[in-house]
Amino acid sequence: MTDISVFVDSRGGNTKKVADAIAEELGVKVGDLRASQSDDGKILFLGSGTYGSKPGEAMMKFIESGNFTGRNIAIFGTSGGFAGGQKMITAMADTLTRKGATIVGSYHCRGKTFLINWGHPTKEELDNAKKFAREMFNRC
Ligand SMILES: Cc1cc2nc3c(=O)[nH]c(=O)nc-3n(C[C@H](O)[C@H](O)[C@H](O)COP(=O)(O)O)c2cc1C
After folding, report:
1. Is the CB of 10 under 6 A from ligand 1?
2. Model's pTM, two decimal places?
3. Cβ(55) to ligand 1 under 6 A?
4. Of 12, 31, 108, 120, which cross-links 77 as Cys (Cβ 3.0–4.6 Å)?
5. How far away, in angstroms, is 140 Cα from ligand 1 center?
């Protein structure tokens, strides 16, 4: 049994960087979203980029098809703008809550897209993701 799992849906690689920072901080590897999910463990980190104010399809499929009853979940993501990221996190949180999960917290930062947000996620944003990871782990 692994106590900590990290899964990410990242089309462009920005959110994967955040997932890698979280996994590194907690000494685990980022799991494969397409492989089956374990039903135990202390905390699950789920992250996605924001596409039309929504999480990626692979992440939504993962959430819709999984059993999250009684699971502690921390959500993370990246987005072009702040509001889009918030909407995406809310969409994930609502679905997971409906499926019986406990949302322990969330973190999102900017990710580069087309001509904006060059250099994001920055080192500072990735350091903040690590702090978030540690805090979420300690909370469970
Ligand atoms: C097709 C597409 C749609 C996007 N839609 C939004 C959006 O609705 N709101 C937003 O804030 N950012 C949006 N973005 C920006 C991405 O959320 C941002 O670049 C994010 O870091 C992408 O994560 P990824 O590199 O992990 O895929 C969009 C980007 C793409 C490519």
Report:
1. yes
2. 0.96
3. no
4. 108
5. 30
